[in-house]
Amino acid sequence: MPHLRRPRWPLALAAIFAVIAGLFTYGWETQSGYYALWPDRAHAAELYVKVPGGKPPAPGSGFYFVDVHVLQANLLEAEYFRHFVTGAQLIPAKAELAPGESEQQREHEDVEMMADSQQVAQAVAERALGLHVKISGDGLFVDSVAPHYPAAKAGVQAGSQLTAIDGTPLQSLGDLRRATAGVHPGDTVRYTFRPGGPRVIRTVAAPGTHQPVIGIGVAEQLRISHLSVPVRFLTKGIGGPSAGLAFTLEIYDALSGRHLLRGHRIAATGTIGLDGSVGAIGGVSQKTLGVIAAGADTFIVPREGGNYRDAVATAHGRIRIIGVRSFAQALRAIRALPPVTNR
User: Fold this and answer.
1) Crossing angle, helix 327-335 and helix 244-255, to 10 degrees?
2) Whole-structure pTM value
3) 276 and 260: one domain?
4) Which of 6, 137, 150, 192 fits a 20 to 30 Å CA distance from 230?
């Protein structure tokens, strides 16, 4: 009687499954070194910003703020976002995290920046309406110094005050943005600190970008001790300072009788300074897609940092893009829009 050999395909199949499972486990547990950014649909500001005594927008109109989804991607997630998610972008983790910073620290800082932007938005909107706002400030302070960067090598210390750049006095983040607007990576800049005095430091490019940096975090030391209207924000789970301009517009319009919108759905992004300056933000391409998905007809973005250029390139004419450098410019641009009569 002939000997029957048992088929070996079950063993081969088991080996293949074991290899696939091992690769999946490795890909899931191994960080890619990238963050994934992808669009989030813009949010109606009136649902998140509660203004006592404020008037709601007319049906079909409103101000919108826009966020992006952010994920520290493992190898599998990176491949998924790279090939299958429309509008997604992978950016190096070193461009999102300061040297030595953890993901948990980044998230905590985002929450703090959101809270700060909300308070500044209130102050700017209420002050523009002539309401009583009490603010005291101590200028700009260095809150972190990244090791191995030019500032650390020059002996800059956390806690020192940044008082001037190339002889231009600084009191606010808006002053800082204006003083560094023409600086490029590799340029030599004279920074003045107290204590410490002047330091001539050569800038370098931020990782993954063309933005000039010296490796310090700078915070505006301001105290807003009185606001006339107790605005409430329902933004739990949303971080970062980029909604500052949108919140300012929402508060201003709600308190002034809703005369700005005139039928429009207007989205806005950009940081807001106490002097009304509007600063650049990240993820503007993803935010543009999120604004289009929400059905807005106008998107107001910062002129700085290439934000306006990138928003126009992403929009492809599907939405009106307006670039501004200040809250006052945003107000003028909105008032110049023709009213919507067919919605």
Assistant:
1) 60
2) 0.78
3) yes
4) 137
